[in-house]
Amino acid sequence: MIRVLLTDDQHLVRAGLRALLENDPEIEVVGEAEDGQAALEAARSSDPDVVLMDIRMPGMDGVEATRRINEWHHPPQVLILTTFDDDDEVTRAIHAGAAGYLLKDTPGARLREAVHAVAAGDTQLSPRIMRKLMDRVADDAPRELPPDFSELTERELEVLTAIGQGRTNAEIAVEMYLSPATARTYVSRILAKLGARDRTELAIMAHRAGIA
Q: CB burial class (10 A; 0-12, 13-18, 19+) of residue 60?
């Protein structure tokens, strides 16, 4: 079971999220919090695997709560879920250690998939956030293939391109006629070959190389 803590200042939003997540038999909502400070306390007492975190809340906001959670010895993964796609908010959340950043118009199935992904150690960004992030870094480096790309197979380059376009592992598997396990294996191999920390860094590499 993936243990999830919901953090949002609106009760109706938390109730809706609980209903969406608990449609998945492998997800258990173990607590709720209405602001960042309450999230810290609830996370310590309920020991979640994933904290679903809003950003703008009264008192301590979600970014500050994320930063404090990531100072713990064994912190849960924090998945930001918000209505705001402001560049500064995205940057602050990523710098604070958020494992993902999704918008509240994300479909329920995609949200459940993201919870599974961040619980497994993957990074998740909504396509709109990914595009905005890529637009900010695309001009920071020349559009040329770095030497390490020569180690990638043609199929791995295709997977890297898809990552740069914001595709999830499940979407890559469907589009390339792969099993989900094979898609995950490709991503793991690319991470290892390029020495990247996570999918976000892979996406940045793909955009800087001009292949996404």
A: middle
Q: Cβ contacts of residue 135 below 8 Å, gap of 6+?
A: none
**Both tokens assigned to 105:** 């118009």
d(CA 164, CA 40): 33
**Cα–Cα–Cα angle for 5, 70, 53, nearest 5°?**
35
Which among 72, 73, 30, 25 is positioned nearest to 50, based on CA atoms? 30
| Residues paired with residue 52 on neighbouring β-strands, in sequence order | 6, 79
Tell me the per-residue pLDDT of 63-92, one tens digit each, with 9 for 90 and over. 999 999 999 999 999 999 988 877 778 888
Give which of 188, 168, 187, 170 is closest to 179, Cα–Cα.
170
Angle between helices 62-69 and 36-46 (to 10 degrees): 30
Half-sphere exposure of 1 (CA within 13 A, CB side): 13
Q: d(Cα 169, Cα 171) in Å, to the nearest integer? A: 5
In the chain, what are the domains? Answer: 2-134 (3.40.50.2300), 139-208 (1.10.10.10)
Whole-model pTM: value is: 0.72
Closest CA to 44 of 56, 30, 58: 30
Question: Mean pLDDT across the stretch 10-37?
Answer: 96
